[in-house]
Amino acid sequence: MFTGAVMSWWKTKPEFKSQIEDLLVKSGERIELKVKVNRDDLEVRWTKDEQTLRNGDRINIHQTGVTLTLWITNAKEEDDGRYTATITSGADSASLSATVKVLEYDRHWRVINWGRNADIKHRLQDMTLRNPQAQHLRILLHGPVGAGKSSIINSINSIFQGRVMVGVLAAATGGHSFTKTYNTYEITDNQNRVLPFIFNDIMGLENKDDEGVHPGDIISAIEGHMRADYRFHPDCPLSRRDSSYNSSPALSDQVHCLVSVVPADRASNNPDEVVIRKMQMIRRHASDLNIPQVVFMTRVDLLCPLVKDNLQCIYSSKKIKQKMESYKNALGIPMNCIFPVKNYHEENTLNSDMDSLLLDALQNAVNFANDYVGTLTAGTQPSATQPPVTHAEPSGTHTQQMERPTPRLERLTLQVETPEASEPSTWSENSGAGRSGGAHTEFLRNSEIDSSYIPENVARGNLMPVFTHIDRELDIEWRRMNWDTGSRNRMERELRELRLLIPDLKHLRILLHGPVGAGKSSFINSVNSIFQGQVSARALVATGAGVSFTKKYKTYPFINGNSGCLPFVVNDIMGLEKGNSDGVHPNDIISALKGHVKNNHKFNPVSPLSLGDRDYNPNPTLSDRVHCLVSVVSMDTLTFMEDDVISKMHVIREAASDMDIPQAVVMTKVDKACPLVKQDLRKTYVSKRIQQMMQECSDKLGVPMNCIFPVKNYHNETDLDQEMDCLTLTALKQIVHFAHEHVCLLKGNYDSPYHEG
Question: Predicted confidence band at 559 (pLDDT cuts at 50, 70, 90)?
Answer without folding.
Answer: confident
